[in-house]
Amino acid sequence: MEKKRTPQREARIRQVLEKRQKDLTLIVDNVWDPHNVSAILRSCDAFGIYGIHLYYTDSEWPDFDNKSSASGKKWVERTMHSDAAEMVGSLRNQGYQVLRTGFSEKARPLMDFDLSKPSAVILSNEHSGTAPELLQLVPDEVYIPMQGMIQSFNVSVAAGLILYHGFTQRYAKGMYDTPSFSQEEMDVIVEDWLSR
Fold first, then answer.
1. Angstrom distance (rounded) from CA 123 to CA 104
2. By CB distance 3.0 to 4.6 Å, which of 2, 68, 88, 118 could disulfide with 96?
């Protein structure tokens, strides 16, 4: 069914895209539970993330069909990868700091990091942790301080907390007041979104 193109719909799409942050992203590392990935996408949409990276080498690409929060996939771009060095290298060449979540003695609390800078944060598999090849490529490790008996958050909750941290830092600097896309980029994306 063709989407109805109305001035109101185009205005709403432009309003949302003007807040989208093209240089804050997540790398989802072999997270197998589609409910978790769908929830991550929902948080990305809520905090104005334009796109994420899906890195899958030892599990199936997540199946988003019939998931309650699957609507996030419609409004968050997804780039799929299977080559860790190429993915991390490309992000670094674009000026991103690349971080990974973890609990080693080298890990620093989330509050130590400035996510108003171009940033990509790796969220890893719920059971096996960060893929070994990503461990070698990404030494900077971040953790979310917790005060209870349990050591870690669910991966989708961790994603929401990390993105909220980035949101508050960027909001304080007024980064949501100025579009991160050029007018030309915006026009292309608007046309794409109008067809969704």
1. 15
2. 118
